[in-house]
TrEMBL record:
Source domain of life: Eukaryota
Protein name: Uncharacterized protein
The organism's taxonomic lineage, starting at the top: Eukaryota, Metazoa, Spiralia, Gnathifera, Rotifera
Length: 26
């Protein structure tokens, strides 16, 4: 679920939010 949500968020918002979510999860 997490992976799917992350992919959706990154695909949907590939901007500040996407970059913010990436480091946050890792």
């Amino acid at each position: 679920l997490i992976a799917a949500e992350t992919n959706s968020l990154l695909c949907r918002d590939d901007s500040i939010e996407g970059l913010r979510f990436y480091p946050n999860l890792f």
